[in-house]
Design goal:
This protein is α/β, with parallel strands linked by helices. It folds into 2 domains: 13-151, Rossmann fold (3-Layer(aba) Sandwich), CATH 3.40.50; 167-284, Rossmann fold (3-Layer(aba) Sandwich), CATH 3.40.50.1980. Helix content is 43%, strand content 17%. The chain is built from 12 helices and 14 strands. The strands form 4 sheets. It has a 6-stranded mixed sheet. Strands 11-9-13-14 form a 4-stranded parallel sheet, sandwiched between helices. A two-stranded antiparallel sheet has the order 1-2. α6 runs parallel beside α12 (271-284). The radius of gyration is 22 Å and the shape is elongated. The relative contact order is 0.11. Keywords: Signal. Residues 1-18 form the signal peptide.
Length: 290
């Protein structure tokens, strides 16, 4: 009996000492002995989420283009999205590495794991994946209260946008992310969710691929009510390009608008700011013609 009690006592102590544990987006369990103190992020949106959770002092190094908030620009850079300086990364002795499946790829993630690192893999596809990421990273960082607050604010902002625009008359939208070649987002991309939230219909939602390339004939054939330009550069070039086809409804009625891709294309709570821009642009496409 004494031996049994000793075993039970060991189990209780072991459970009491267990650190934070979550399951990442690939279904892998991540268990830490204690909340992460030395984090390396390998995607700009993951860097931003750590800061949104108040994990400033836990951030150790990051990836190129981690430019928000301003403090993130001062962090050491150990990688671009698909090229890692493994020697430098290991020198920082991270107790948690945050990776992005779409940006980093399975090869890099596998190599990181083979080095014995704790790797949380993020694979966001939909708006509701953002609060899920906040909550899981909140656990790993020991910042559950901050995650709960951020998640609540995010959900409230989405609910308000849905109330304002979600039940409005549907508008056919072509969302352009690049000019040459023409590129858009397919139905499985996060931005397609935002279009739906705004009462917009992604005219290429059935097109295969996350970021399909298009021929101009495809856009002419669907004749969208609104064209949204979500490019990082060459906005005027994009506007000028579509003016070549005045027969397009969006061109004929002057319904070509641009939005800030830095807000809309990152899987972070700031996407609600970009969603508001997008909803307002689409709503202009509902207004009666003069």
């Amino acid at each position: 009996m004494g031996r049994l009690w000793a075993i039970l006592a060991l189990i209780v102590v072991s459970q009491a000492q267990a650190g934070p544990t979550v399951v990442d987006d690939l279904g892998n369990k991540i268990s830490l002995q204690q909340p992460a103190k030395r984090i390396i992020s390998l995607a700009p949106h993951l860097t931003e989420i750590v800061y949104a959770l108040g994990g400033d002092e836990q951030m150790t190094a990051t990836v190129a283009w981690s430019d928000f908030p301003e403090e993130a620009k001062a962090l050491p850079v150990v990688a671009s999205n698909n090229k890692i300086n493994y020697e430098l990364l290991m020198a920082y002795q991270p107790d948690l590495v945050l990776a992005w499946l779409s940006g980093n790829g399975e090869g890099i993630i596998g190599r990181l794991k083979s080095l014995g690192l704790n790797v949380y893999v993020n694979k966001p596809r939909h708006l509701q994946d953002i609060p899920d990421t906040l909550e899981k990273l909140g656990v790993l960082l020991g910042r559950e209260a901050e995650a709960k607050r951020a998640t609540g604010e995010f959900q409230a902002a989405l609910s308000e946008l849905s109330r304002q625009y979600g039940q409005s008359t549907e508008v056919d939208v072509y969302y352009q992310i690049w000019q040459a070649p023409l590129m858009t987002f397919g139905g499985s991309h996060l931005v397609s969710d935002v279009l739906t939230l705004c009462g917009g219909n992604n005219v290429f939602t059935q097109t295969a691929g996350l970021v399909p390339k298009l021929g101009v004939e495809s856009v002419l054939a669907v004749d969208p009510d609104v064209i949204i330009i979500g490019q990082y550069t060459a906005l005027e070039t994009a506007y000028a390009y579509w003016r070549q086809w005045p027969e397009l409804s969006a061109v004929k009625h002057g319904r070509i608008y641009n939005v800030d891709p830095y807000l809309l294309h990152r899987h972070t709570p700031r996407i609600v700011q970009g969603a508001k821009q997008l909803c307002e642009a689409i709503d202009q496409g509902r207004r009666p013609l003069p």
